[in-house]
Amino acid sequence: MSDPVIDIRGLVTKFGTNVVHQDIDLAVPRGEVLALVGGSGSGKTTLLRQVIGLLRPDAGSIRLFGQPLFSGDALADRQLRRRFGVLFQHGALFSALNVLENIAFPLRELRWLDRDAISDLVMVKLAMVELEPRHAWLMPAELSGGMVKRVALARALSLEPELLLLDEPTAGLDPDRSAAFVELIRGLREQLGLTVVLVTHDLDTLAALATRVAVLGDQRILAFGPLDHVMNVDHPFIRSFFCAERMQRVFARGRS
Amino acid sequence: MGVPTVSLDLSGARPAVSLRGDWTLSGLEGRLDALRAEMSAPGVCSTAHWDLVQVDRMDTLGATVLWRVWGDRLPEGLIAGARTRRMLDTVAVLGARSRSGQPHRSWLEPVAAIGRTSISFVRQAISLLAMVGQIALDLGHALRRPQDAPLREVSANLFKTGVTALPITALLGFLIGIVLSYLSALQLKIFGADVFIINILGIGIVRELGPMLVAVLVAGRSGSAMTAQLGVMRVTEEIDALVTMGVPRSLRLVLPKVVALLCAMPLLVLWTSAAALFGGMVAASFQLDIGYGFFLDTLPRVVPIANLYIGLTKGVAFGLVIALVACHFGLAVLPNTESLSANTTKSVVSAITCVILVDAAFAIATRQIGMPGG
Prior knowledge:
The complex is a heterodimer. Chain A is built from 10 helices and 10 strands. Chain A is an alpha/beta fold. In chain B, strands 1, 2, 3 and 4 form a 4-stranded mixed sheet that branches. Classes of the chains: A alpha/beta, B mainly alpha. The interface between A and B is medium-sized, with 27 and 28 residues.
C-alpha cells in the first residue's frame, strides 16, 4: 500500500477563542472515497479548505501525496496544487468566461499546450460529464444548477487530477439530478482511478459514493471507517444523523 | 515516472510503432511537439502496427494526441492494455476534427452590431423614460400617503452623497480656484486689467465650473456607488426579496437616491463654488495684490445674482440626471461579474456625458441671462 494521498496530523483550528478542531489525525488512502460528515459548524468545510490550502491550520500538518502544502518553494507548491481538483459548492465558474473558456482556463495556464489540443481536451471533458458540445458556448449565467455543477466538475478534472475534493456536490440539485450526478462521479472515479473527498449532508450521496466515512464533531473525529462500522458507533450525533429509519429508507431505495 | 517515448521498427512488412512511458499531462510537458512529429513521420501513420502495451499510464491528453495522429480513428491491429484502451474509447467521442463547433460569424456581423447598438440605445432611452414616469408616480404616492415616504432612506442617501462628499469637493474646488486664478492673472497682468480677475472667477466658477466640477465628482463617486449597490442587490436577489415583501423597489430604492441627490447637488454646488472662489481669492491676493475685502466687495457688483441661480438650477438638473442614469444601469445588471463591471462603467460614462449635454442645453437656453452689462 502506498502512502496516503491526504495525511493530516495533529491539526488544530481556532477562530478567536472558538476551537473548531482539536488534534485531528486523518489519513485518506489512495483510491478511497471519503465522506466528511458532521453537524453544521463542526468544521467540515473548514477542514476541506485547509486541505486545499485556502486556510492554514493553527497547528499540525497536512501533507498531500506525501508533500507539505506550503513548502516555501513556489514552483513545487504550484505543481502540487495541479494534482488535485476542487468542485466548489456553487460551482465557482468564472462568470465572465463561457463554458469552453472555463474548462480550458487551467489548461491555458499551463502555457505549453496548443489551442487544438486544448479544445480537444475540453470536448472530451464535456463528454465525460455528459454535456453536449453545443453547451461549450454558453455563459455560466445561462446554465441550470445541474449543468453548473457538471461544468465545474469538468473544470476540476481538466488537469487530470489524482485527487478530487467535492464540497456538497449534490446540494441544490433535485433528487433525480442529484442521483445522476452521484452516478457520474462514481463512473469517473472508476474510469480515472481518482481518490475523492466529499463533504455532504445528503445520506443518499453518502451511501452511494463513500467507501469511508469520517464523522466530525466535538472538535475531533468521532468515527472513521466504512459506513456500516461508523453507523454503529455510539454517540448522540451519529445516532441522530444516521437515525435508523432514515438510513433504512436510503438502503431500501438503493436496493430497489 | 516513465518518460514517454516512441520507438519505430521499419524492418517488417508493416512498420511497427511501440510507445512506452507516461502519456499524461505531466509526462508530455515539453515533449508533445517532438513526439507528435516523430509519430506523424511519413510511412508511420495509420498503416503501422501500434503497440501500446508498455504504456504505463495514459490520460485524456495522451489519448487525444494519439487520436489526432491516427486521423480520428483507432488503427487496425492496435495492441493496448485494458486501461489504455478504455481511455482511447473515451476520447473516441471526439470524432473527426470539426472546426464547426463555434457558431459561425456572418460577414454582416458589423452591420448587425450597429443595429443591435441602436436598438439597445432606444431601449435604454425608453426604460429611462419609464423610470422617470415611475418616479413621478412614486412621488405622488409618497405625498398622498406620507407614512409610506422613505424618509430614512432619503436621509441616509443625503448623508452618503452629500455630507461625506464635503471634504473632497472643497479641496478640489479650492485647488481649481487657485489654478484658474493663477493662469488668468498671468494674462490679465499683460493687459493691466488686473481687476477683471474677479469677473472671470465669479462668472466662470459660479455659473459653469462649480456645477460641472461637482457633477463629475458626484457621478464618479456616488453614481458608481449607486449602480454597484443596486447591481449587487440584483445579483444576490435582494431586490427580488424586497419586491416579494410588497415593498416597491422604485419607491424604496430609486426614489430616495433621486430625491437625495436632487437636494444634495445644489448644496454641494454652493459649497464647492465658495471653496473655488476662496482659492481664487487667495491666489489673486498673492499674484495681483487684490485684497480680500476688495474682492468680496466687488464680486456681487460684477457678477449678477442670476448666475448663482443658474448654477444652482444646473446642480439640481445634474443631480437628477446622475441619479437616474445610475439607478437605470444598476437595475440593468445581470447576475454575473462582467455585467456588473460593464454597467458601472456605462453608468459613470453616460452620467458624465448626459451632464455635459444638459450643460450645453443650459448654456444655450440661458445665453441672455446674467451677463454683466448685457
